[in-house]
Amino acid sequence: MDRPTIDEYLANMGAGGSRICEIDASEAGAGNISICLEDLPGVHKVFPLSERIDLPLPAPALAGRTLLVTGSGRRLRQIAADPVAAIGAVIVEDDGQHAELLSSPRRQFAKLTSEFNSHLAVHNDQISARDLPFHATVHAQPPHLTFLSHIPAYQSTKAMNDAILRWEPESIVALSQGIGVLPFMVPGSDQLMAANVEGLRTHEIVLWGKHGTMSRSDLSVTRAVDRVEYAETGAMYEHMNLTAGGVAEGLSKAEIRSVAEAFGVTSPWLD
């Protein structure tokens, strides 16, 4: 099967950014996207400007690989219209500590996203463990999930999953690993970076308490966005039920198990 071209990867990032904005999960310049590839033919032609940068953390598993990363302050809704203005290409050097940053003459950002450390750490961790040819990460700020994380009763992984996986039969299939919940940590901090890496080892989406989410996918940016959308929809139903006085029952555990059995899904959230 033919590999996607650089234009197709950029278009996928644009589609993912547009969908994040359509579900109100990225106000103004909030949210960021990155992908990591074994290599990317044609990258120097699309991004002809070059500079050497220090990586925010050692990433030895990514040596020789190329990342496409959104720039700080770029609006995700604008990526699709002009992706090279909002995205930089990072080619990791053999030492795993430095990289060549490529950009376009139309570049509209001074530096890469402030969450680059979390993106880079997750890519390095996942590729070190599984030697993936492709990996995508998406940070978004879905309002209903973020709102629930402000309520003490929802501030544990068990409580959040019990709440949001009970509203749609598809949820246990799409989010079989559930969503990991992290306490509030300063955005861009080393503390958040380390907790995020650990959370995404056992989940494909984590909730950064009182902040937003990061999701990952081995297939595409849009698949990582799908995980945000499913989790946010469950949180929206939970919010609706709260405002209605808790009158809806949601799916029972037995009903969720029956869906999982029908689709051959195993999950820690079936008990």
Automatic annotation (TrEMBL):
Domain of life: Bacteria
One of the record's GO molecular function terms: rhamnulose-1-phosphate aldolase activity
SUPFAM superfamilies, alphabetized: AraD/HMP-PK domain-like
One of the GO biological process terms: pentose catabolic process
Pfam families registered for this protein in UniProt: Aldolase_II
Keyword Cell cycle found: no
GO cellular component: cytosol
Enzyme Commission numbers on file: 4.1.2.19
Keywords associated with the record: Lyase, Metal-binding
Matches recorded under SMART domains: Aldolase_II (SM01007)
Name of protein: Rhamnulose-1-phosphate aldolase
Location of the Class II aldolase/adducin N-terminal domain: 11-239
Gene3D superfamilies noted in UniProt: Class II aldolase/adducin N-terminal domain
